[in-house]
Write the structure tokens for this entry.
Amino acid sequence: MIRQGNEDFETFRLLEEGIREATRRLEVTRSACDPHARVTEIVSRVATRLTRWNRDPLAMENARRAALDEIEFVRRQPLALLRTSSQERFASSEKEVSGRLWAESGATVRASLSGGVGTRKIPLHKEPIRGKAHTLYRFAFPLNVPQARLTVTIKRNGKVKTIERLFLKKVPLKPATGRILSDWQSPTDIEKWTRNYVAVQPAADKEMGPCGKLTFLPGAEFPNLRLLEPKGFLDTDWREYGYLVLTFRNPGSSQVALRLKPLDRGGKADDKHYILLEPKETTRYAVRIEDFGVDIANFQGFELWMFQTKEPVTVMVGPVVISPTKP
């Protein structure tokens, strides 16, 4: 495993060196086209951070193969480099993708987009720069289909190079269906929750719609809020229910770690349910109620908590739902 990791590091190092050499030969500044950015884009297919990476061997092999192919690609004539505003193969909520292409002076360039219905050409705005080894092309296209494949063809002196990028449109989560325990929208509903160093406000989110704004405050070792019977709900036998569904959005720039702790009326608690919320992402967490690890025939409720924080931490939470099936 260590040897494979060293080999992967060497592969990505060679790719970055290859892109750096292409920028040098094309006379493109690093500030315009950072060689490390494309390497990061490929690595992010399997590792978005040190603590979050895909253990699927096939995903690792695909990223490795993509890097090896690109090493060969950046060395081939005609030289060309592509940068886009959205990261390929990652679901984006952006309405438009813009890009820049640097190609050897004298090359003929064509771009097209497929996805949805048919294939169409993309207009390229040519910006020749006097005295430089490259021509800069700018373009943009709407991202309004689930998948859009960009194809750019560069021809020069009888040699042809093709660049392909796949862009994904983020599909909004459908509202979870079932019995709503809390929708956060009224003072009466918010009063269902027992709060300890957590401020709760009704809010509206562009992705989730009506929701609750939870702010975990400094000052407590474990800031938390609880939904408990009888204030939160009346029935204590949850054996007939399927899933507890929680939808979160992390509006901050850092990862947020929450825990869900079910409780029964006999005093037993289950603290093994971890919820990791990535920055700027919406996450749906659905847990099967029979996996709570407590007596669900004598159920008391559940708690959302985090470890002590030095600064206020805000999380958006959609309606809390009991669903018969996993959404």
